[in-house]
Amino acid sequence: MVHFIKFRPIKPRSPHLNGKVERSQLTDKSEFYSIINRKERTLDLATKLLEWQNFYNYKRPHASLNGKTPNEKLLELENLIPIQPDVTTKYWEQEVEIIPRNSKMYYRNR
To answer: Residues of 36-48 as b/e, b for ≥16 C-beta within 10 angstroms?
Structure first.
């Protein structure tokens, strides 16, 4: 609630409803984890993940962004991103009930 992000859970075992995460995980698996030796995974994985994250966000062109990096796309759209009072005014007043993920009500209705 601090960041005004509404949690909208999807049904378990429904990857077709979570395509962006599935696609991101496929990219990580094919481009990052495939080049790491299994024996090295426990040694310095945190540093390698930070290097991968930097490469992915600042240097790797993305087809879905017309060949731009995520950082380039963010800078291009930065002036269109609403500031917090605008977000609060438009979305918070809708009074949509936010159900925590661990809510007993959520699991009872499934």
So the answer is: eeeeeeeeeeeeb
- Whether the full predicted model's pTM is greater than 0.90, yes or no, is no
CA–CA gap between residue 83 and residue 68 (Å, rounded) = 24
Q: 106 is written with which tokens?
A: 């959520």
- For the chain, what is the mean pLDDT? 77
* CA-to-CA dists, residue 35 to 57, 74, 87, 90, angstroms: 18, 28, 41, 45
| Nearest residue to 35 via CA among 58, 19, 51 | 51
* Alpha helices by DSSP H, the chain: 19-27, 45-58, 70-77, 84-91, 104-108
pLDDT digits (tens, 9 = 90+) for 71-97: 999 889 888 877 766 666 666 656 666
103 token code pair: 């809510």
- For residue 109 the two structure tokens come to 């209705």
The per-residue pLDDT for 83 is 73
